[in-house]
Amino acid sequence: MPSIRGNVRVAFEFSLPSVCGNVRVAFEFTLGPLRLQEAFVASEASVFMNQPPPHMSRPSIIIKLILGLLWTITHLAISFLNLWSHLIYSLECYLISSGLLRKYQNLHLGRLKCLAIVVDSKEAKSTVKVKQLLCWLSSMGVKYVCLYDIEGVLKRSFEPAVNVSRDRTAGEHFGIGANIKDLHRSQREMVIDCLSGSDGKEGIAKAASLLCSTYFNGDTHGDGKRKPAFTEADMASALKAVGCGGPEPDLLLMYGPARCHLGFPAWRLRYTEITYMGPLKSMKYGAIVKALYNFSKKHQNYVLQIRYTN
Amino acid sequence: MLFSHHSPAATSQLLAPSRRTLLLPLPCPRAGATSAAAPAPAAEAALLPGGLRAESLPRHVAVVMDGNSRWARARGLPSAAGHEAGRRALEEVVRLSRAWGVRALTAFAFSHENWSRPKVEVEFLMGQFERAIRESVAEFLREGIRLRVIGDSSRLPVSLQKTAREAEEATQSNSQLDLTLAISYSGRRDIVQACRNLAQKVHDKLLKPEDIDESLFADELETSHANELPDYPDLLIRTSGELRLSNFLLWQSAYAELFFTDTLWPDFGEADYFEALVSFQSRDRRFGVRKL
């Protein structure tokens, strides 16, 4: 008669909301040796005696209750931990926003020449949120922002305004309420570059087409019999010629449900630091300050340790 | 609640769970199947640890194997020890990928920028790659793993080029897992060489410059597959806490879920891989109908 012995491994999963979207939690643990032989025997005995087996025998009820209790306790514990981490995160963002955490008060952004913001196209339709974000960045002293979404929503929403307002402060043009006074006071200006998918892969394809046309028109190379020896410099020049040049961002912040750069111009992503910020609708000022602060610290370490990576 | 145990199954009457019951062995036994037939979906699902759903696993995973030298330094060991430990970590990830049903794995073994490292270290790494490939061919044949090596091969030692070519030829008909090793690889150089290939086709009058679009360009990248396997990674893992692509799969990573972990590569094991895959499955990855 087979018996059930040995360890029992219990695994379950559930979804929990978190600061970065729903998180699926999978949890496993191993119970000590369980002896279920008695329950099994009782069930078999009932069948053997041609009697209907009891609906549930006592040991199996107890086991079920214990396992159910363990599952509930574990679920509660993980929910609590998740809630706790969410509270800590929100508290930290609040403390940063209110200026109570001294180390975040003075951001040294000298090395942040260009900041890229990638937004999921659906979330990019929330222009109020994007304007708020730009205003925050301007107030922090960011000088150059590349705004990107793959479908060009941001380009359509902001580019005409950006072109008009090149000589004004970003806050003045976008009409953000309470922050305008601060911006006027600080006299900060911020360059905003709006990009879309046409500047990414399409741009590289256009640059390749230009390089091929130029090569076979004999403008740059000789007889064209050898395979053209295009270099990275040639590609960079071609990208500039088709209007897809631009600086390599030092830092890229991703907003959206998925942690992807969504086709941001590949040529410009070589050594860009990438940070995922969560959905745009739950963006926090403190979280951005923290991301910029971490970048400023890390960038210094990267420069110092450049020969020692890996 | 899912139950699993190692002894013969009980009757379902006893433990009437409220959710689906799945009996799982310990994950990742060595898959000893021949390379000829693909494992049945039920068998693949049975090898998955609890919490992973077979239908939403990434088909193509890319890894940036960072942290070998730091791992060795932290232990007072020479960097060679770190690279050896890194090799073992990669073997484990290959085994897990094969067992869990990931169809393609691309590993960033050596970047084009790494040529500027100390000569001794570079020579050690080239030797290690050659030994690892030569010693793994039998395993690849047994497990149905197809090997490809991408990158600027012109700078590799001739013996390594030969070993890689022979291993590619020997394993080209395998279909269980596509393993791509990026050695002397650079994302920008990949783009430039695709451009050169297209220029050659223009020269051969196979196409005109104005015909070049995203799709034609993508077909010329080194990662392009001739078969149905996905060229682009669904999940890109980088270890050691760095938050950069470092010139790896710049074009191909547009829709890859980026998973950054502080774990150093030699310490990256089953638990870390599991965490990355769970993180992938938890994301709301809706990309509409845009062509990738």
UniProtKB/TrEMBL annotation, chain A:
Keywords assigned by UniProt, alphabetized: Endoplasmic reticulum, Magnesium, Membrane, Transferase, Transmembrane, Transmembrane helix
Signal sequence interval, chain numbering: none
Tagged with keyword Magnesium: yes
Gene Ontology cellular-component annotations: dehydrodolichyl diphosphate synthase complex; endoplasmic reticulum membrane
Segments crossing the lipid bilayer: 61-84
Broad EC category: transferase
Subcellular location: Endoplasmic reticulum membrane
GO MF annotation: an example: ditrans,polycis-polyprenyl diphosphate synthase [(2E,6E)-farnesyl diphosphate specific] activity
Needed co-factor(s): Mg(2+)
Catalyses which reaction(s): n isopentenyl diphosphate + (2E,6E)-farnesyl diphosphate = a di-trans,poly-cis-polyprenyl diphosphate + n diphosphate
EC number per UniProt: 2.5.1.87
Pathway given in the UniProt record: Protein modification; protein glycosylation
Family statement: Belongs to the UPP synthase family.
Protein name according to UniProt: ditrans,polycis-polyprenyl diphosphate synthase [(2E,6E)-farnesyldiphosphate specific]
Organism lineage string: Eukaryota, Viridiplantae, Streptophyta, Embryophyta, Tracheophyta
UniProtKB/TrEMBL annotation, chain B:
Keyword Transferase annotated: yes
Gene Ontology molecular function terms on file: ditrans,polycis-polyprenyl diphosphate synthase [(2E,6E)-farnesyl diphosphate specific] activity
SUPFAM superfamilies: Undecaprenyl diphosphate synthase
Alphabetic keyword roster: Transferase
PANTHER family for this protein: DEHYDRODOLICHYL DIPHOSPHATE SYNTHASE 2, DEHYDRODOLICHYL DIPHOSPHATE SYNTHASE FAMILY MEMBER
Family of this protein: Belongs to the UPP synthase family.
Protein name: Alkyl transferase
Entry's EC annotation: 2.5.1.-
GO BP terms in the entry: polyprenol biosynthetic process
Cofactor(s), names only, from the UniProt record: Mg(2+)
Alphabetical list of Pfam families matching this protein: Prenyltransf
